[in-house]
Design brief:
The protein is about 50% helix and about 10% strand.
Length: about 500
């Protein structure tokens, strides 16, 4: 500073000793104003220097941000035309930078790819009694060209070729006759039940149609092509529809028996999925046990569908499901919520809220419970009881921990676990209760596969026919039966036989 505080005070003191009307006072007053203006000027200059330094710093930061922004714009331009669910057929679950709600829970086992040690293979083996034997003998010498027809041949080796013969339809003509008795009555024979028209298709074609439709998921056009090109039998879509309806109708007796057995089983798995029926969203339901699978095509996902199928509920069963609210309103012996669904949801929440570790800790508890389930039949009862009690206490303790209010999805998950806490570890108290609902998901997935291969269902009756036939197929598989043999027999059954059985 050019002017010190002491100089200013000395001027003030001298001015106080002078008379206000004297010329000296006026001079001192002017001098004081000059000192004040100079002081203010120096202060402003300091402020300007500080502002200039701040502007220079901001200018430098702006230059850095502009350079960084240019780099980001360059990188972003590479993704602006990237395919996603909005501009291509890529599903939304595969969009970039999207946290997947469901991911596979499979972990690496450390085993090599291919067949494992002890795997029973299937080798193409020769048969002892071939259908046909063809002899290949040389007729002339490949060296000099001499005739070898008079020389006996020596056996060198053999090879077998397995193939299928040309397929041609077998047409059986049924002729009926009549005889007149001595009493005068004329008795006529009857056509067999499969010959219900002047020209019709036999039960094997009908059973094969149901097999291709519900087991191999083939659409009508491809079945038409198969019958025409391979079997030499041209079939219309209407004929195929009639055959499928016939098999579904004749299967209703078995279908009802499956429903009855499922309703009284000790453990029942349930699941549901959306089905496209002529452009409208409908719902397919499955209720299954280790021995039976009951599938139904319903109009909604509400509890009234369950009430329609099982009016008494499942009073003797523990119902295993994915925590859908409709299942909890059904009368049951108990519930088991699917741990696989919980683990997938915990995986999603862990990626959504990366600053917390509650989801990882809770997932470890569930994995510990799954390991305990595998040893529950071999371990000592006291040890199982101790480990089970520790798991229960740890879960209760974790549910009391506070959660960040910003983690709304995690809070909702914890509240759901608290509400259905009694359904979390029921599989540790009942050996026959599975910890997950995977079997039901596999059973209901057949509808999704059918839709992906064949497209939507045209009518609700068609979706229900598929449910009936597929129930018979899955139940046959669970009981170690052959699907083709079962479907081959069904078209020959009549309604009276089904009612009596």
């Amino acid at each position: 500073m050019l002017f010190q505080t002491n100089d200013i005070m000395s001027v003030f003191n001298k001015a106080n000793r002078l008379e206000t009307e004297s010329p000296e006072y006026t001079i001192f007053k002017q001098k004081l104003e000059i000192i004040s203006l100079n002081y203010r000027l120096e202060s402003k200059e300091k402020e300007m220097l500080a502002l200039k330094e701040q502007v220079d710093s901001l200018t430098e930061n702006l230059s850095q941000l502009e350079a960084k922004n240019a780099q980001l714009e360059k990188e972003l331009s590479l993704y602006r035309t990237r395919k996603d669910s909005r501009n291509s057929s890529i599903p939304p679950s595969q969009d970039p930078y999207r946290v997947k709600r469901t991911e596979s829970l499979r972990e690496r086992t450390g085993r090599k790819q291919g067949g494992q040690s002890g795997h029973v293979g299937c080798t193409l083996e020769a048969v002892p009694d071939p259908t046909e034997i063809t002899l290949h003998q040389p007729n002339y010498c490949h060296c000099c060209g001499a005739d070898l027809s008079d020389i006996s041949a020596e056996f060198i080796g053999k090879r077998q070729v397995k193939d299928i013969p040309p397929i041609t339809p077998v047409v059986t003509e049924h002729q009926i006759y009549g005889k007149r008795c001595r009493c005068g009555h004329f008795t006529k024979s009857r056509f067999p039940e499969e010959a219900n028209a002047p020209v019709c298709y036999g039960p094997r074609i009908t059973g094969l149609t149901a097999y291709l439709h519900s087991r191999q998921y083939m659409p009508y056009e491809r079945m038409n092509e198969l019958y025409r090109d391979i079997f030499g039998i041209p079939l219309s879509s209407g004929s195929l529809t009639t055959m499928i309806k016939s098999v579904a109708h004749n299967s209703r007796g078995f279908y009802e028996e499956i429903r009855r057995r499922v309703s009284s089983a000790p453990v029942v798995g349930a699941d549901e999925t959306g089905v496209n029926i002529n452009g409208k969203n409908r719902w397919a339901w499955v209720f299954q046990t280790p021995e039976a699978t009951y599938i139904h095509a319903g109009l909604s996902r509400e509890k009234k569908v369950i009430d329609q199928l099982f009016p008494q509920g499942f009073p003797k069963s523990i119902l295993v499901h994915d925590c859908w609210k409709s299942y909890f309103s059904v009368q049951t012996k108990g519930h088991q919520i699917c741990t696989a669904h919980l683990l997938r949801e915990l995986k999603y929440l862990g990626k959504l809220y990366t600053q917390q570790k509650w989801t990882a800790d809770f997932a470890r508890l569930l994995h510990t419970a799954l390991k305990l389930k595998k040893t529950i039949l071999t371990e000592d009862e006291s040890k199982v009881f101790h480990e089970r009690r520790m798991l229960e206490e740890q879960v209760d303790q974790m549910l009391t921990q506070t959660t960040d209010s910003q983690h709304k999805n995690l809070i909702a998950f914890k509240e759901r676990i608290k509400k259905y806490r009694h359904c979390l570890f029921r599989f540790l108290y009942h050996t026959e209760v599975p910890p997950d609902n995977n079997a039901s998901e596999r059973a209901i997935r057949t509808y999704k596969v059918k839709q992906k291969v064949s497209g939507l269902f045209r009518t609700e009756e068609g979706a229900e026919d598929f449910a009936i036939i597929r129930s018979v197929i899955d139940t046959t598989i669970k009981n170690k039966g052959k699907v083709w043999e079962a479907l081959e027999l069904i078209p020959a059954l009549n309604e009276n036989f089904l009612d009596s059985s």
